[in-house]
Design brief:
CATH architecture of the domain at 56-298: 3-Layer(aba) Sandwich
Structural class: alpha/beta
Number of strands: 13
CATH superfamily of the domain at 56-298: Type I PLP-dependent aspartate aminotransferase-like (Major domain)
Bound molecules: pyridoxal-5'-phosphate
CATH topology of the domain at 56-298: Aspartate Aminotransferase, domain 2
CATH class of the domain at 56-298: Alpha Beta
Distance between the termini: 8 Å
Length: 484
């Protein structure tokens, strides 16, 4: 039995430390092979090297106090200026560097909430209108900030926001509308011009979630793709989030939140002088903040450059079209949405896509499962990286083979059993015993996941969202524990 981890009595050598760290990675997905179609945004080894050097060069600089580290302020202001110009902003646009899309979105919701508190104090229970496809980060922001998410139905054919449904969802308590460019699940751009007009008519703020699409969409347009307007050139758009750590290929921990004006951004900033220590004045959630992600993002933009990103856009656009056309022509697969980004989501009416994912995994591919929600059937999701270009033919060959294999595999029976036993249950009625029973039915022992995930995905897919959430919380609570 191995010993419980403790701080070693004596420090290790550098080699011993780094070798031990390397061993932690042994079960990770081998993303450098470029057969992982999620989670990783890989610019290739040359850019990776530059980005890593930049990160370590600024690792210790602390953006907490820009008067002490003006380098971090200068880097942040330059990144914001580049982002604003990229998204059609004028000189009035301001913004801040954040740790990721979720933080940028959290700050957009906080800005709207605090502005409403100042200007519309009659609103006691603020609401934001979210298309059903808006990222979970908005729900998380609502949860943290005590704002109510009001979900508006989407167009079930295009998976885009429906401005009419959003209009119907507006109440006297509404403080913010949201649109995506693009949505993660289906990779489509919401009708931002229509939603912008609605925001102006109703005198509401409008946040565009460009975390995933904001960076590459302008390049796709320059490649000739018909990208609808979604940025500050659309009247009514008041803030935009855009991640550098996705398709700008920066190191993780890099996003930006932009506001149309300083008047709006004021509500994002937090100051505290009511304690005995140094004065806290933070534009973002983090206080102590490494300069590493800032420098790495700046390095990515400068090393890859406009011409480099245009080349990336051309490559991934071509790859995406090939994959989408193949799926479209496949008799057993069905694309969800007409893609406007290098993301592909497809489902099947003939077999379980969860088995396809498991079969693909056995052949060395990682494809992401997405559960059914509303009008969106359970599906397979691919984020397409330029580093994977050499794999497209092999991927499609294996996909065809795995679809054939999945056809012979059982599906549906477990889901029916779960639905019968738990479908009508309230999440609050799901005690520890029932959770354990569900996990067992899905093949989960303790916190260890089985090799095949189809059963787990089928169980989750069969449950209503509140029960899914409860189950996942219990599972995660089990997962993060001291190793024995
Ligand atoms: C559209 C969209 N918004 C927000 C996010 C959240 O970003 P992060 O994971 O960086 O917090 C994502 C992540 O994939 C996304 O695709």
């Amino acid at each position: 039995m191995s010993e419980a981890p403790r701080i070693p009595a004596k420090g290790w050598s550098k080699d011993a430390v780094l070798a031990a760290l390397e061993r932690f990675k042994q079960d990770d997905l081998p993303w450098r092979e470029a057969r992982t179609w999620a989670y990783v945004y890989d610019p290739g080894p040359e850019a990776e090297d530059v980005i890593k050097s930049a990160f370590t060069a600024f690792l210790t600089e602390n953006a907490l106090d820009p008067t002490v580290f003006p380098s971090t302020l200068a880097l942040e202001n330059e990144l914001v200026a580049m982002a604003a110009a990229h998204l059609e902003g004028d000189a009035q646009v301001v913004g801040n560097f954040t740790s990721g899309g979720t933080e940028s979105i959290l700050l957009a919701v906080k800005t709207a909430r605090d502005r409403a508190r100042a200007l519309r104090p009659e609103i006691r229970e603020p609401e934001i209108v979210l298309p059903a496809t808006a990222h979970a980060a908005f729900h998380k922001a609502c949860h943290y900030l005590d704002v109510k998410p009001v979900i508006a139905a989407i167009d079930p054919r295009t998976f885009k926001a429906d401005a009419g449904a959003m209009r119907a969802a507006i109440t006297p308590n509404t403080i913010l509308l949201v649109g995506s460019a693009v949505s993660y699940a289906h990779g489509v751009v919401d009708p931002i011009e229509e939603i912008g007009a609605l925001a102006l008519e109703k005198d509401l703020l409008l946040h565009v979630d460009g975390c995933m699409g904001g960076f590459l969409l302008p390049y796709f347009r320059r490649c000739g793709a018909p990208v609808p307007r979604f940025a500050f050139d659309v009247p009514g758009v008041t803030s935009i989030s855009m991640d550098f750590h996705k398709y700008a290929f920066a190191a993780k921990g890099a996003s930006v939140i932009l506001h149309r004006s300083k008047e709006l951004r004021r509500y994002q900033i937090y100051a505290c002088a009511s304690w005995t220590g140094y004065t806290v004045i933070n534009p973002t959630v983090q206080s102590t903040k490494s300069g590493g992600p800032l420098a790495a993002a700046w390095a990515a933009l400068h090393f890859i450059g406009d011409d480099g990103y245009l080349k990336v856009a051309r490559t991934v656009l071509e790859m995406t079209r090939r994959i989408a056309d193949h799926v479209d022509a496949h008799p057993d697969l069905r694309l969800l949405g007409r893609l406007e980004m290098n993301l592909v989501a497809f489902t099947s009416d003939a077999l379980s896509v969860f088995h396809v994912i498991d079969e693909m995994k056995q052949r060395g591919w990682y494809l992401q499962p997405q559960l059914a929600f509303g009008d969106s059937k359970e599906n397979v999701h691919l984020s397409i990286n330029p580093a994977s270009v050499r794999w497209v033919d092999a991927l499609l060959r294996d996909l065809d083979a795995c679809v054939e294999r999945a056809k012979g595999m059982p599906s549906g029976a477990l889901a029916a059993k779960i639905r019968a036993a738990f479908g009508e249950m309230d999440a609050s009625g799901l005690g520890a015993e029932k959770v354990a029973g569900l996990l067992q039915m899905a093949g989960v022992q303790g916190s260890a996941l089985p090799g095949r995930m189809a059963e787990i995905n089928e169980v989750l897919n069969a449950l209503p969202a509140p029960l899914r959430e409860k189950l996942l919380v219990e599972y995660l609570n089990e997962l993060f524990r001291q190793p024995i």
